Amino acid sequence: METVQHWLSSVPPGLMYVIVALVIGVESMGIPLPGEIALVATSLLAVSGYADIWWVAIAGSLGAIIGDSIGYWVGHRGGRPFLERLGRRFPRHMGPIQLAKAEHTFQRWGVAAIFFGRFIALLRIFAGPLAGALRVPYWKFVAANASGGIIWASGTAVLIYYIGKAAETWLSRFSWIALVVAIIAGIVTTLIIRRRARRQFANAIEDSDQAEATASGRGGPAT
To answer: Is pLDDT above 50 for 159?
Structure first.
């Protein structure tokens, strides 16, 4: 995180927004890059006034929406063989196990997986290409993609920014402590958001499995 933040602070703000949008966009196409780390690091730079938080939010949102859309059309054209090739190229992030989990989630939840997938690392990478490969209607995809991308990017950026600002004001006499607190707060906030999204999604899947098991038991042959 600190390395990314230091590197971003060495480039002009305008270029920094472009880099954030590109990193998030490429990640959304199906290539595992640290999009969330780039977003959090840039939001923390906005606390010090080096960047504008609203441009950070806009850049992150555009990167997520455009990247997912490109990933959708690539997946739509290449189908499952394309996803399998990506898995061979990035086995740690997109191997057969990860693909099977993501595919199962999409088949069960469809458009909801696209929206909530923006908050979960595995689905954030797979969402666009997998939705295209599974032939999810584009209008449904883009609605879930846009809403999820905007809420994820803008919500994360603004939340971390205001937490950092609050910490900076409170510890204004100890600027180096404020920076450390802001970084820790940003990391903790991101982890909480991700954990809650995973928990809600896991609970929904468990409830659905239980409902299906109950329905199957009722509809099965009597013993």
So the answer is: yes
Residue 88 CA to residue 79 CA, distance in Å, equals 15
213 by Cβ neighbours in 10 Å (0-12 / 13-18 / 19+) ranks as: exposed
CB of 168 within 8 A of CB of 151? no
Instruction: For CA atoms 79, 85, 89, 94, give the dihedral sign.
Output: positive
pTM: 0.67
Helices of type H across the chain? 2-8, 13-29, 35-47, 53-89, 91-94, 96-109, 111-117, 121-133, 138-170, 175-219
Mean pLDDT for all residues in the chain = 76
- 């890059």: which residue's tokens? 33
Radius of gyration of the chain, Cα coordinates, nearest whole angstrom: 19
The answer to whether the beta carbons of residues 17 and 56 sit under 8 Å apart is yes
pLDDT for 70: 93
DSSP letter for each residue of 90-115: SHHHHSHHHHHHHHHHHHHHTHHHHH
**How many other CB atoms are there within 10 angstroms of residue 8's CB atom?**
21
d(CA 164, CA 59): 20
